[in-house]
Amino acid sequence: MKKARKASVASTPAVSPVSTKRQGRREFLIKTGGMLAAGAFAAVPRRGWAADPINIGALYPTTGSMAQIGVGCVAAAKLAAEMVNDAGGIKSLGGAKLNLIISDVQSDTTVTRTETDRLITGNKLSAIHGCYASALTLIASEVAERAKVPLITGSSSDQLNKGRTYTFTPFARASQFAQAQLQMAKLISDKPRVAVIFENTAFGTSTSNGLKELAPGEGVEIVMFEPYSAGFTDASPLINKVKSSGANALFSVSYLNDLILIVRTIKQFGLNIAINGGSGGFVIPDFYKNVGKLAEGLQGVAHWNHDMDANSEKVNAEYRKRTGEFLFEYAGGLVAQTFMLADALERAASADPQKVREALSRLDVSSGFAAMAPGGKVKFGPDGKNIYGHPVGVQWQNGDLASVFPKEDARKPLMKT
Amino acid sequence: MWETVAQAVINGLLIGGIYALVSIGVTLIFGVVKIVNFAQGEFVMIGMYISFFLANQFGIDPLLSLFVSMPVLFGAGVLIQHFLIRRVLGPNDMPQIFLTFALSLLLLNLALMLFTANYRTVHTSYSDEALHVGGLYIPVAKLIAFVVAMALSGALWVFLHTTDLGKAMRAAAQNRDVAMLMGINPNRVFCVALGIALALAGAAGSLLMPFYSAYPFVGQVFVLMAFVAVVLGTLGNVIGALIASLMMGVAESLGIQYVGADSGLIVVFAMLLLTLAFKPTGLGGGRAR
Q1: What pTM did the predictor assign?
Q2: CATH code at position A137
Q3: With b meaning 16 or more CB within 10 Å and e meaning fewer, what string describes A16-41?
Q4: How many domains does chain A fold into?
Q5: Does the N-terminal peptide bond of residue A131 adopt cis geometry, omega within 30 degrees of 0?
Q6: Gap between the Cα atoms of A364 and A245, Å rounded
Q7: Same domain for A266 and A316
Q8: Is there a contact between B247 and B13 (Cβ–Cβ < 8 Å)?
Q9: Are residues A285 and A237 in the same domain?
Q10: Is the pLDDT of residue B289 over 70?
Q11: Which of A6, A308, A317, B35 is at 20 to 30 A from A391, Cα to Cα?
């Protein structure tokens, strides 16, 4: 039976092989017994699918304020689809190729809603991945849930695991990030005295409140807890305040521009303090480009890092060849997600979104590109959360991000600053 | 204790110098041409991008690129006055307001299109250096920016008080009609005023570049402070704008230190409202100087 399918696949690229193929199958049916014949019949519609590529929606902000990261995500999404296709596509569907349908959600929640809707109604999608920013992913996930199309995402909002059945999150959740950050503070000192500064936005407030709630349980003392106006002109007064708080570690919940000012000002003040910049804008190549050598030794947290295993390094090398930069957290996770989808499609042997969802919910991988995650294992719980999911602590070392925490995921020792 | 206060005052004065360059430009245009230039912040942004590209492409120090950004923006100012603002000067204020507002939006969106929203920084040898004086820290890049800003303000004062053109400018600011009767060519004076104002904005951009990131919206950050300083220091008063800018820098810095890092502006605006309540024309006392 396998042989028969292979033969039919090989013949599909020819212009009109239909008649000869039919003949082949008839011959085959006559030669085989009833049981096998039944199996061969089942293969008929499958062969029909072989010509049809499998549509995967990719929703990323390639214009607007998040454009830069969105463009990187699209590059990674294309690379991942190519890798799956070059390896022979989805074999249980006769080597069907993944067809990436990319849509720009313009860093905007309203556009995300209409684009997700348009993508689902306009194409026969088997699954969707996106959208980098949690605020956008939450919207896309709502639309996908209603349309019953599975969505897989690296976005970290815990909200994505509440009351959803078609949403899958293979990587660490926001609440886990805060905990990892606090635990990393203990690498610096047995008695961490942490100053938390955060921009006075929804993002800054919710992240810092998470840190504040978990700190006592982790044995970390918070000596300063200060919101600031995002987009300030001068970080000196704020750093003056950090200095007088006597903190030995600083958590800064900030976007790129503010963080650059903060890091530079700390250096100017000659302040010796361990800085943890969290995730997001802190763990992308652009951060190092802007901050330069001052970034050395700075710590952060990520849901994916390119030094995790041999497969990650391999994808990283290819991505670097194409874009000139290392494969950053979100884009790397996205390559793994594509392979998780491929694994599900393979087992579902169908491009039907409901069946793909079923197969995704039973995903259990511990090797290959689909298992590129901290800990190296992916299996979804009933809430769509990877039961093995956890973040990895990273540090800027020689212009590159090295995994340094927890012990089992560390690839380089923590550099003391 | 005193060290913390002194440090806060130093931080405030240093950033106040940058506010001063932007606000002097706004107040000069208002004083002489009698229009509010809403696009002043965008010219700071252009100054920053000029310095960024010169540093990035040719390795020119942002401070040296002052000699490029200032003349380029002076020229832009002259052209904008001659071809745009001159046409709308008249009894009706609305076209003038919309002209500069449109200019601001146009430049902002052009920058977004050409340069994208990415942050651009230039790293110089002195970007991260600081002088340590008796337990206080004075960042070198900001100190240089402050000194140059004060020198340029001083040079402008000398120009306004000693040269014929400068005197003509002050005359036009005090009473445009009488100045015209005395044989002063208004368009020439206005062109120079616009040129100087934009050159100062360009200088602010170049001076900012060693320690601040350039991005299309960067001007908006500074222009708000500039407008407050212009009102606080009396509209059209150059010395008033300078002093008000420095005061605002210090007020903001002390506010962050003692009220909260997200409330620095509360102190600034409280200061503005109190001043206006007791001195409605601002600290400068109602005369253009």
Answers
A1: 0.73
A2: 3.40.50.2300
A3: eeeeebeeebeebeeeeeeeeeeebe
A4: 3
A5: yes
A6: 48
A7: no
A8: no
A9: yes
A10: no
A11: A317
Question: What residues of chain A have any CB closer than 8 angstroms to a CB in chain B?
Answer: 64-65, 67-68, 197, 200, 226-229, 231-234, 236-238, 240-241, 244, 256-257, 260-261, 264-265, 267-270, 286, 290-292, 294
- B75, B12, B91, B112: which is closest to B202 by C-alpha? B75
Closest residue of chain B to A232, computed from CA coordinates: B221
Mean pLDDT of B80-106: 89
* Of B15, B252, B260, Cβ closest to residue A226: B260
Give the range of the structural domain holding residue A248, as residue numbers without chain letter.
175-302+393-409
Interface subset of B 119-148, CB within 8 angstroms of A: 119-121, 123, 127-130, 132, 137, 139
Min Cα–Cα distance to chain B from A6, Å: 49
Q: Which helix (H) or strand (E) holds A266?
A: helix A256-268
Give the alpha-carbon dihedral of B214, B215, B216, B218, to 10 degrees: -70
- Looking at the structure, do residues A185 and A257 belong to the same domain, yes or no? yes
Cβ contact (<8 Å) for B212 and A233? Answer: yes
The alpha-carbon gap from A292 to the nearest alpha carbon of chain B, in Å, equals: 8
Does A156 share its domain with A188? no
For residue range A383-411, what is the model confidence (pLDDT) as tens digits?
999 999 999 999 999 989 999 989 899 99
Say whether both A179 and A296 belong to one domain. yes
Work out the percent of chain A whose per-residue pLDDT is above 70: 88
Nearest CB neighbour to B213, from listed A229, A257, A269: A257
Nearest CA in chain A to B1: A244
> Do the chains contact at A237 and B4, CB–CB below 8 Å?
no
**CA B247 – CA B233 distance, rounded (Å):** 10
Domains of chain B by range and CATH?
2-278 (1.10.3470)
Q: What is the pLDDT of residue A51?
A: 55
A417 falls within a domain: no
User: Considering only alpha carbons, which residue of chain B is nearest residue A243?
Assistant: B4
Domain identity same for A112 and A190: no
Paired strand residues for A365: A378
Residue B170 neighbours by CB under 8 Å, 6+ apart: B160, B161, B288, B289
Subunit contact A233:B18, Cβ cutoff 8 A: yes
pLDDT tens, residue by residue, B123-146? 888 887 888 888 888 989 999 999
Whether residue A405 sits in one domain with residue A378? no
Give the three-class secondary structure for A389. Answer: coil
Q: Which amino acid is at A286?
A: D
Residue A191: other Cβ atoms inside 10 A: 11
